[in-house]
Design goal:
This protein is α+β, with helices and mostly antiparallel strands. Among the domains are: 2-6 and 42-72 and 149-319, 2-Layer Sandwich (BirA Bifunctional Protein, domain 2); 347-436, Rossmann fold (3-Layer(aba) Sandwich), CATH 3.40.50. Helix content is 29%, strand content 29%. The protein has helices at 9-18, 40-58, 74-80, 82-85, 151-155, 158-164, 210-227, 275-284, 311-322, 359-370, 383-393, 403-408, 429-436, and strands spanning 2-5, 22-24, 36-38, 63-65, 87-92, 99-101, 124-127, 131-133, 143-145, 171-180, 195-205, 235-239, 251-259, 262-273, 290-292, 298-300, 303-310, 323-327, 335-338, 349-353, 375-377, 397-401, 410-415, 421-425. Strands 4-10-11-17-14-13-12 form a 7-stranded mixed sheet. A 5-stranded mixed sheet has the order 21-20-22-23-24, with helices on both faces. The relative contact order is 0.12.
Length: 439
């Protein structure tokens, strides 16, 4: 049997809607550009991904978690540089009014949408932050922002966390949360959106030790993606050099994945120096220094190594990587399958009674399996079509209840990837799944 990988993002968009992973937001009203809703299977996949990240990052003695508010004091964003410097250069086509980021196109070329030549406006800066008001009166004092990143919620809580948890350097603070950016040109499905979720960790350390720490976290984060099932030939490093390097960083590199539109950023590992804590100390007037009792009670502002992965981008990489079209030359034997690593699959096992007359033992089995794993019960259509449905959503195992079950108290287990089948006893089903799905 031969197979092919995902060739076009449109194939994944189609499958996502057809099988309940991701829907266009507000679709009944024509949709809202670059906004997406996670359906029943999508939210399970996303929750599995977030749980994997949270355990990997915080089930260790040197990292703790927080969940900071989306709304923060507006001076936070002045101190971080977002108010004055979080801009993209924007140009418009004077003919069709299409808007572009200047750094993503060649202004000397015709408009990509309408083909008009020499039709672009002069570039102007566009701040990516969404702003709104807090309170009943709309004036400058009530202006607040939807956070464009989760990192600042960690930085302003550094001292609170360090003192209450009695943490010694080095230690990290992790957070999963929504962020919002008024992107000029979002696209590529859920790759670049205006509302997205970040999984970030800021690792605070003694100045001068950041290089070693960055190398350690690069290895940890690379291996995590491999453990999730991403193929190593689809991943690469992209170090930041020259103008790419942010003003607050002394080193940075991205983990890129080869999406259908090409290699693009999925996660960043950055050495942010002491920029953020120093800025918040200056703007707030509050000391954010660390008292190093292990080094003659020296006081200093810690340096930071950041790991920041886009949850939605990581999920998109997982779906892109898992997508396979398998065929044997016969059109009827083609199958689309999502070969998720079982620990991430939204549905772990499906119970399929061969006929309606077998519902009683099938439902009893389903109730038992559901105590342990996210499961699905499916009676509609031929057994072949039901197998194909489970293949498309990435279910690792199907349990088929047939008439022999009434006699031998056993069921047929079908493996998603090999499509091989074996017979196991009903009283051994949970143990069998525990062995196959051990994480």
């Amino acid at each position: 049997m031969s197979e092919s990988n995902l060739k076009s993002m449109s194939d994944l968009v189609s499958l996502s809607k057809r099988r309940g992973f991701i829907f266009q937001s507000s679709e009944v009203y024509g949709g809202l550009q670059s906004c997406w809703d996670y359906g029943p299977l999508g939210v399970e996949l996303k929750n599995n991904l977030k749980e994997r990240w949270w355990k990997a990052m915080t089930f260790r003695d040197d990292v703790v978690g927080v969940d900071a508010s989306i709304f923060m004091h507006p001076t936070v964003w002045k101190a971080s540089g977002h108010v004055d410097g979080f801009n993209d250069p924007m140009i418009d086509c004077k003919n069709c009014k299409e808007r572009y980021r200047e750094d993503k196109i060649d202004p000397s070329q015709p408009c990509q949408k309408c083909g008009a030549k020499d039709s672009f406006t002069e570039a102007r800066d566009f701040n990516l932050m969404f702003n709104t008001q807090m309170g009943p009166v709309e004036d400058d004092k009530s202006k607040v922002y939807l956070r464009p990143e989760t990192a600042q919620g960690i930085f302003v809580n550094f001292l609170n966390v360090q003192t209450t948890m009695r943490k010694k350097l080095p230690f990290g603070i992790a957070q999963i949360g929504k962020a919002f950016r008024n992107e000029i040109s979002p696209g590529n499905f859920i790759f670049r959106t205006r509302e997205f979720e970040q999984m970030e960790m800021q690792y605070f350390l003694k100045p001068g030790t950041q290089k070693e720490a960055m190398e350690q976290w690069k290895e940890i984060r690379w291996n995590w993606h491999l453990e999730n099932g991403l193929r190593p030939d689809k991943l690469r490093w992209h170090p930041h050099e020259g103008n790419e390097l942010a003003h607050y960083a002394d080193a940075a590199t991205d983990i890129e994945y080869e999406f259908p539109h090409g290699f693009d950023e999925m996660e960043g590992i950055h050495s942010r120096t002491d920029f953020d804590l120093k800025q918040h100390q200056e703007f707030s007037g509050k000391k954010l220094e660390y008292l190093d009792t292990q080094d003659n009670n020296k006081k200093y502002i810690p340096y930071v190594v950041e790991t920041s992965v886009g949850c939605d981008r990581c999920l998109l990489a997982l779906m892109s990587d898992a997508y396979r079209l398998e065929f044997e030359g016969d059109k009827e034997k083609e199958r689309t399958v999502l070969k998720f690593d079982p620990k991430l699959a939204p549905i772990k096992v499906a119970v399929l009674p061969l006929m309606k007359k077998l519902e009683e033992p099938a439902k009893k089995l389903f109730a038992e399996v559901q105590k342990h794993y996210r499961a699905e019960y499916d009676l509609a259509g031929s057994i072949g079509k039901r197998y194909r449905r489970q293949d498309e959503i990435g279910t690792p195992f199907c349990l088929t209840v047939d008439f022999d079950t009434l006699e031998d108290q056993a069921v047929t287990v079908r493996d998603r990837d090999s499509m091989s089948q074996e017979r196991i006893s009903l009283d051994n089903v949970v143990n069998y799944l525990n062995d196959k799905l051990k994480f």
